[in-house]
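[job 4471] stage=fold_predict status=RUNNING
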Amino acid sequence: MRKGEILIETKDLVKIYPMGRHELVALNRVNLIFRKGEFAGLVGPSGSGKTTLLNIIGSLDLPTSGSAVVMERRVEELSHKEAARLRNEHIGFIFQTFNLLPYYTAYENVEFPLLLLKVSASERRRRVMEALDWVRLADRASSRPAQLSGGECQRVAIARAIVKQPAIILADEPTANLDAENSHNILQIMAELNHELGTTFIFATHDEKVISYLKRKITLFDGRVVKDEIIS
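[job 4471] inference complete, writing structure tokens
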């Protein structure tokens, strides 16, 4: 893929959740394009539609109407199996709660996506150690989550997201459970990976520390895009 190539495009994207006799409009005719190599963030107050938009881009949810095209695939037309394949091959996820498997080592947690892709054992080891090295945790490969700090657990989660070198990484409030120092360490690592690998990062956040690293800030309010700005 060339730098600047379109990876994601939403067209009049609408998401409505039934709420008893009423409806909650989470997304209201959202039109956005994301290109290879972007370091972008969805910002806005709670309930503005940030996580809903990330979930649709990540094929974890479906729009009510409109379209989301990700890696040339229409999310709303994918079967469960096709959506899982899209996620496995092209998308990495980072969540605020880490979502690590507690009884598995850092190495085994990072290895898991490669097992789904049926990567050979020798190639898995090379990629896992490379990913742990990227997040400066190669020396903690045999440690379990309970033996790691919150910042280290989030770094393992980043390694797990990048080990398959996906085109897109979706990060939902990735610094919410971290102190300022760990937040900046995590963000510096992600910015370096964006620069070195050309991976497209899209954050959902209201954390000013995250916002200070963004190259593009998309502001949502009541499910609408109210501002889309490039940050120099």
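[job 4471] summary: Helices lie at 50-57, 80-90, 106-116, 121-134, 150-162, 180-197, 208-211.
[job 4471] exit 0
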